[in-house]
Amino acid sequence: MSKFFERIKEGLKKTSRAISLKNLFEGRKLDEDLIEELEDSLIGADLGPSYVADLIDNLNELYQNKTLTETKEVNQWLRNKLISSIKTEKKEAPTSTNGPAVWLFLGVNGVGKTTSLGKLAKRLVNNKFDIILAAGDTFRAAAGEQLSLWANKTGSEIVRHNEGGDPSAVIFDALEAGLKRKSDYVLIDTAGRLHNKKNLMAECQKIFRTIERKGGAPEEIFLVVDASTGQNAVQQAKIFSEVAPLTGIILTKMDGTAKGGVAFRLVAESGVPIRYIGIGESEEDLIEFNPEEFVDAILPAEIE
To answer: 258 near 45, Cβ under 8 Å?
Structure first.
């Protein structure tokens, strides 16, 4: 049993209890009442009405034509459906051919964006990579302070300008520093503002132009979203995926919600794979996403 499984199973206890299929299925026969209760359980875990409706329509068809006749068959069928729906390949972005690899972090305020960047920075440093942190969120003073703390923790250089400055100037200087220092990575924090799509697109395009001026493009473009916000997280993923070529989602605060099913909706509605999930406050609590083990943690492998 992997470290991921142990950590994610602990973190997803609330979601597992919300779905609670073992109690739902145990000692029951497969009938229309059970299917209706299953629908309620899945919606309660925040898989979303439309996503659940598709699953239940499919299940009803299999029940009516007697392809599925027992609850343990339904359990395995559902597990397979959930795994396949969340198993999305990483979207490749054009990478930099000149200088350090660039990782860009997007997301609204309060989702854990700067913390997620810091945790990944720590992982890179632990693997002996030289990194530079770019404090591209110049609109919120606390963001620069928070990133400075991570720079101290990781022993990394940070490029930071005065509050209210031009984020692109910070990014330009960070990339310049990375080239001179021959760093392996530049990790860029950005302002967490979600106003209208037109302005968001303009901001992202300005960032991309700045990176291109230094001879490359981001290797990773992460969107950070808060699992506990449910539909808001899904909406953020849809909007950001339309204005930036995201390579992955970082889903935070999974340990504090009974609605971990939002992960399935995020992938289904944005088409962007989940790459990391946050299940706690410590530096080790941002872990790589594994679709099979994620489903294992919220659904029992077998039903008697």
So the answer is: yes
